Amino acid sequence: MRIVFFGSPDYAVPSLRACLALSNAEVIAVVTQPDRPRGRSGVALPTPVKALAVKAGIRIILQPERIRRDIADTIAALQPDIGVVAASGHILPSYLLALFPHRVLNVHASLLPRHRGASAVASAILAGDAETGATIMEVVREVDAGPVVAQTRLPIGPLDTTGTLTTRIAEAGAVLLGDVLPRWVAGALASVPQNASEATFAPKLTKEDGRIDWSRSAAEIDRAIRAFQPWPTAFTTYQDAPFTVHAAWPIPIALDVPPGTVVAGDGELLTPLLPGRVSRALVACGQGALAILTIQRPGKRPTPIEAYLNGDRAFIGSRLGA
Where does residue 79 fall: left (phi above 0), alpha (psi -120 to 50 degrees), or beta otherwise? Predict the structure, then answer.
């Protein structure tokens, strides 16, 4: 089985490892995003997939900004059997897809047809879904609309963020991929078309998506805070400056103050899921209240609310987002 792997971020690394671990397969090429500056140093760094490919000794590593005919010609000359995609960041044209006798399979981070698109994990948390998972599907020209080959399901916990959930889905999807690939190439598996009427969409996130609307319920805002970790992060304004909320907990109580108003907590233990965390600062929401746990001011590091309140007594009684 001659595999061409398309992937770039950390999410794709477990799937590449699964391909490399197959006894009857060879990863003959990797297609990934170009090296880009990262961090304060501005040094161009390889994608996580490229770093693994180099370590694994894969000789052909292609890094185009966009897939064009020259890339397709290079891949065609390698006589591949199958392509595997895991968040490559490239649009794969029809002439490229046609090169693979056993098609191109994608490891998508949702239970398709739910949450097609770039922000599938965040969208599942935002929607309040009880579960999500990984779907292996055939790649077609329409985004995430190809027939489904296999799925694996995972529960979404009350503390899950996009970061933690993406890691779990990536590992589960890789295990599924390792099981599916040999059987798919052997013709022992068949794909099933998606029901397009059940499709939901998960567009690419923007920084503005993270702005907190305090008129929404505490449960909705809590899901948004978790969905937007680690990016774009949930934020509001305080003292005319951005104010990031990294962690919080919804409480089903009514506060007789306008939404966004901060009141002192009663010091009660919030939940056994958050050992040692108590309510020190509550924010009124459209329904219920939100116990603030970790915040960040511009130019500062994330800070537990207990420590933050020691240096900012004016926070209690303020109105966020005003």
Answer: left
Axis crossing angle, helix 13-21 with helix 162-185, rounded to the nearest 10: 30
Tokens 């746990």 correspond to 293
Cα distances (angstroms) measured from residue 62 to each of 7, 265, 273: 11, 55, 45
Is the CB of residue 106 less than 8 Å from the CB of residue 118?
Answer: no
**Token reading at 303:** 């800070």
- Pick the closest to residue 103 from 25, 33, 187, 12 (CA basis): 187
Q: Tokens 């589960």 — which residue?
A: 172
Q: Is the pTM of this model over 0.90?
A: yes
Structural domain boundaries enclosing 218: 207-315
pLDDT at 40 over 80: no
- The three-state secondary structure class of 38 is strand
Domain termination site, one of 198, 227, 262: 198
pLDDT in tens, 153-206: 999 999 999 999 999 999 999 999 999 999 999 999 999 999 999 999 999 999
Number of domains within the chain: 2
Q: What are the residue ranges of helices labelled H in 186-263?
A: 218-227
Residue type, 240: D
pLDDT 10s digits, 213-238: 999 999 999 999 999 999 999 999 99
Contact status, residue 173 vs residue 134, Cβ threshold 8 Å:
yes
Burial class (CB in 10 A: 0-12, 13-18, 19+), 44: exposed
Residues 291 and 180 reside in one and the same domain: no
Mean of pLDDT values over 259-282: 96
